[in-house]
Specification:
Layout: H1 2-10, H2 17-24, E1 28-32, E2 37-39, E3 47-53, E4 56-61, E5 67-73, E6 78-79, H3 82-87, E7 94-97, E8 101-107, H4 108-117, H5 119-145, H6 148-158, H7 160-163, H8 168-175, H9 179-185
Antiparallel strand pairs: 1-8, 2-7, 3-6, 3-8, 4-5, 4-7
Helix pairs in contact: 4-5, 8-9
C-alpha cells in the first residue's frame, strides 16, 4: 500500500519519508469482489477511493431502466459519488466492481485532517480535482460535438487498457450509443 500511494502522490507533490508515513496512516485498504457495489444510489457517501488494482464503474439507471456510465475507474484513478462526497448529500450514482478490486479508502474527515496537517496534500487534492474537472469538461464537449465514431475512437485511444477489460455494452453505455453501434464501429 505505502509504495503505491507514495508513487501516486509523488506524481504531483514531493513528500519526505516521514510525511508519507503520516499520509498512509489516513488511508485504509479495502477489497471488493466483481459485481459488488461500493456505493449504491441514495446512500450517504463519506469516502472516496483510490484504485490500486481492478476496475469499477460509476453509473446510474434512468427512469426507463437504461444504464448511463459516468466513469470507469482502474488503477491510479479515484472514484466515488463526488457530488455526494463533497456536498454531503445522498448518492445519485452507484459504484460497482467490474473486476475484483483493491483500493485505498479515504474518508472526508480524514482528508480534511490530512490537509490541515500537511498543506502539500491540499495542493495534491486541488490538482487532482482540477484534472478531474478538465477531463469531465472534455467528455461533455465530446458528447455534444463528436459523432459516435469519433467518441469511440477517442475512447479506444485514451483508454486502451479499459477497452480490453469491459464488455461492448458497457462501452456503449459510457459513450451514449447502442451496443450495435459499437459492434459496427469495431468492424
Amino acid at each position: 500500500m505505502t509504495a503505491f500511494l507514495k508513487r501516486h502522490i509523488s506524481e504531483l507533490v514531493d513528500l519526505s519519508e516521514a510525511e508519507y508515513q503520516i499520509v498512509s496512516g489516513f488511508f485504509k485498504s479495502i477489497n471488493i469482489r466483481k459485481r459488488q457495489f461500493l456505493i449504491q444510489e441514495n446512500q450517504t457517501v463519506d469516502t472516496m477511493y483510490l484504485v490500486t488494482q481492478g476496475l469499477l464503474k460509476s453509473s446510474l439507471i434512468d427512469e426507463i431502466g437504461k444504464e448511463h456510465i459516468l466513469q470507469f475507474a482502474c488503477e491510479d484513478w479515484w472514484v466515488s459519488d463526488f457530488a455526494a462526497f463533497f456536498k454531503k448529500e445522498k448518492s445519485i450514482v452507484a459504484v460497482e466492481a467490474i473486476e475484483d478490486t483493491e483500493m485505498l479508502s479515504l474518508t472526508w474527515e480524514n482528508m480534511e485532517m490530512l490537509c490541515r496537517e500537511l498543506p502539500k496534500m491540499e495542493h495534491f487534492f486541488r490538482v487532482k480535482s482540477n484534472l478531474g474537472y478538465v477531463a469531465l469538461q472534455k467528455r461533455i464537449l465530446s458528447m455534444l460535438t463528436n459523432s459516435a465514431k469519433v467518441r469511440y475512437e477517442n475512447f479506444c485511444n485514451f483508454y486502451p487498457n479499459i477497452v480490453q477489460r469491459v464488455p461492448k455494452q458497457m462501452i456503449a453505455n459510457y459513450l451514449g450509443v447502442s451496443r450495435e453501434t459499437i459492434s459496427r464501429l469495431q468492424q
